[in-house]
Design brief:
heterodimer, A: alpha+beta, Arc Repressor Mutant, subunit A, 3-stranded antiparallel sheet, B: about 500 residues, alpha+beta, PH-domain like, 5 domains, 9-stranded antiparallel sheet, 11 helices, 21 strands, WH-like_DNA-bd_sf (chain A), protein homodimerization activity (chain A), KLLA0E05501p (chain A), WH_DNA-bd_sf (chain A), structural molecule activity (chain A)
Chain lengths: ~180, ~500
């Protein structure tokens, strides 16, 4: 699968933080959209802070967002942090705290609300309402390969389910302090 | 126009408002706020200006319209000067009495005037001599031959003497410069090439130059005034008067220099060229004497020897100094030939107050930037660069100026009406001198370059601009312009280890 990158990805000044404030803001917006777009294309919900995305099965490097070997440019670490800070502030990204790897960042190329409605819809159509289902069933069950959320990491899925809980549409079941299942009503 | 105006001459003014001097002319003194009078009446359009006293002229440069209203008076025309001091509302004045040109010398020029020319052949060398007069029919003295210099007997040449009546109009009216032999227009009074005073021209220029505009306050009945007044509005003019008198004395001394005291050995008993012939004294050495007289003689001779050594040493030193002077002259001569015109020396000592000095410096700076640095499309130069350039190339030998003085001088441009050049601050910190639209010009040029060749760096931009535009943009200025464009948002940077490249901002809106 070849990744489609926007034209501006080949524009060298993109990798240097610009001094003009207005331009800098637009530059950060550009980075945000590049990251969201790339994650959506690759169906990646969580990526490493260094911007490197690996294929889950083969472990092959798919893309390193902050580097462009074609024009030999790369963002400095400071600028990467600035981009993340901008996205966190915009709530298009979230630092995963509970995750074992604190370098992982959840990317919301679709908002949590829209994910939660997608899952709700899926429950309704597949008749999973009022049943206890495991998170594994939602994310990795073979039945769901065609679903948009197939392959979603459990940590991200939990974020979505929490949103349903807030809407009083789900109850989380815990076993030994660990969430194992969910009942969606 | 009345003949009284013939003493006023037009003068060339540089763009900076300074007069352009002739070759060999040097300026001596400058006075501010001076008004001119012709005779007793005010010249209306010349009431506020600067007065430059130079070695050849008194130049009036008008403050309001320097190109149109400026005039000069030849120092040679001035017979006498008088000073009248300030009294109540009357400002101090210097009255210049002119030499009478119109009566003594002009009549020769009467139209149709005929001249007798006498010719004879020299019996010694055979050269045909001509003199512009009739010979005394019975006089015995014949003038010596122009070629061999032998005075001939009248009888010997009796046969060859011819008297011809010539119309003066037919004789060539060539106006040959005695210094450089350039043939000038007959009505010109100073040589166009070297500026030397032309001898013949005296009789010609009876007409007022049409380029001089003189508006008198009231119509004088005669208009034949042969004096003019310089009125000093702010100062008492005493210093100007003194220097003018000194200069006039100098001129008259120069005129008579070749007449008197030529080849004299001593003046009032003081030798003009004291050289003691050492052989004359040393030849007495070998006289044999014994006793006290010998010792005394010896002592005397020792003293004499010392004296000779000392005077030799001094004369050597003098020669050395003369040589040094020659070298200095040569150096200055070289510099002159390079710029091809005399430089007005703005000397600190000529100015009474600092303000006036700075104004003059401002004019000079303007002229310097205009002539030396300005390219086809204007120029921007940082004050730091200009300071170094100006001090190195103009101020050496006339006293360097300090950075503060330069800045103050630059701030005076507007006041002096030199509107082309402006002191601007780029990026709010770098002071530059710029011709009016040159900043916009360079900015668009830089933007164009960045669009055409994405990823240019400062070095490429500088070479590009200077090679193809034949200009002198300095790297410092270019870098400031780039920073300005980046801050403005039209350019974006790409920072690399090798340097910063610039791109036109085609993706983000400003």
């Amino acid at each position: 699968m070849t990744l489609e990158t926007p034209q501006i990805y080949k524009f060298p000044p993109l990798y240097t933080p610009q001094t003009n404030k207005l331009i800098r803001k637009q530059q950060l917006q550009t980075w945000e959209s590049i990251i969201l777009q790339t994650c959506a294309q690759l169906s990646k919900w969580c990526i490493n802070k260094n911007g490197k995305i690996y294929d889950q099965s083969t472990g092959e490097l798919l893309i390193s967002i902050f580097e462009n070997p074609e024009i030999q440019r790369a963002c400095s670490l400071e600028f990467q942090q600035e981009i993340w800070a901008y996205m966190l502030q915009n709530e298009t990204a979230l630092q995963l705290k509970e995750s074992e790897d604190s370098n992982m960042i959840a990317i919301f190329w679709e908002s949590l609300d829209s994910w939660s409605s997608t899952i709700l819809e899926w429950c309704e159509t597949s008749g999973k309402l009022n049943q206890v289902i495991t998170i594994y069933e939602i994310c990795e069950s073979d039945e769901n390969t065609n679903c948009k959320f197939y392959g979603m990491p459990s940590s991200f899925c939990l974020l979505v389910l929490h949103r349903l809980v807030d809407r009083n549409r789900a109850t989380l079941l815990k076993d030994q302090g660990k969430i194992v299942g969910v009942k969606i009503v | 126009m009345s003949a009284g105006f013939i003493y006023w001459h037009p003068v060339e003014i540089a763009g900076s408002g300074q007069p352009i001097l002739r070759e060999n002319e040097r300026d001596i003194y400058v006075e501010q706020s001076v008004g001119l009078y012709h005779g007793k009446t005010k010249i209306l359009n010349k009431q506020k200006g600067r007065l430059y006293l130079t070695s050849q002229r008194i130049i009036y440069v008008d403050e309001l319209a320097p190109k149109k209203e400026s005039v000069c008076i030849e120092n040679d025309d001035i017979m006498n000067v008088e000073y009248s001091s300030k009294f109540l509302k009357r400002s101090a004045k210097i009255i210049l009495f002119f030499k009478e040109l119109s009566q003594n010398e002009a009549p020769i020029e009467e139209k149709g005037k005929q001249v007798h020319t006498t010719q004879w052949n020299c019996p010694i060398c055979g050269v045909e001599n001509r003199i512009y007069s009739t010979l005394d029919s019975n006089g015995l003295n014949m003038p010596p031959c122009g070629s061999c210099g032998v005075e001939v007997d009248r009888d010997m040449v009796q046969n060859s003497i011819k008297t011809v009546v010539e119309d003066l109009e037919e004789t060539p009216k060539e106006n040959i410069c005695p210094v450089c032999t350039f043939i000038n227009h007959p009505q010109i009074r100073n040589c166009e090439i070297c500026g030397a005073r032309l001898k013949q021209s005296r009789r010609t220029s009876k007409v007022k130059d049409s380029r001089v505009r003189i508006l008198l306050e009231e119509k004088t009945p005669s208009g034949e005034e042969s004096f003019a007044q310089l009125s000093f509005r702010k100062t008492d003019g005493a210093l100007f008067y003194e220097t003018l008198v000194k200069q006039l004395q100098e001129i008259s001394r120069k005129e008579s220099k070749h007449l008197f005291n030529q080849n004299v050995l001593s003046v009032n008993g003081v030798p003009t060229d004291p050289v003691i012939d050492p052989d004359l004294v040393l030849s007495n050495n070998d006289i044999n004497l014994i006793g006290i007289t010998a010792l005394e003689k010896n002592k005397e001779q020792q003293l004499l020897k010392n004296n000779i050594v000392m005077s030799n040493a001094l004369s050597d030193l003098n020669k050395l100094m003369a040589l040094a002077e020659d070298i200095e002259k040569m150096y200055q001569g070289n510099r002159k030939s390079k710029s091809n015109e005399s430089i007005l020396l703005v000397d600190r000592e000529k100015y009474l107050n600092k303000n006036v000095f700075l104004e003059e410096i401002a004019r000079e700076l303007y002229g310097f930037v205009d002539s030396e640095l300005r390219g086809d499309s204007g120029i921007i130069v940082t004050l730091v660069d200009l300071f170094a350039l100006y001090n190195k190339s103009v101020r050496i030998g006339t006293g360097l100026i300090s950075p503060e003085e330069m800045r103050e001088a630059c701030e005076k441009f507007e006041k002096l009406g030199l509107n082309d050049l402006k002191l601007i601050k780029i990026n709010g910190r770098v002071l530059c001198l710029a011709f009016q639209d040159s900043f916009d010009h360079i900015r668009t040029k830089v933007l164009q370059l960045a669009t055409m060749r994405p990823g240019v760096d400062i070095l490429q931009i500088t070479t590009e601009l200077n090679v193809y535009e034949k200009n002198n943009w300095s790297m410092g200025v270019i870098s400031e312009v780039l920073q300005y464009c980046v801050a403005e948002g039209n350019l974006v940077m790409d920072e690399q280890i090798s340097g910063t490249n610039y791109y036109f901002n085609s993706y983000w809106k400003v």
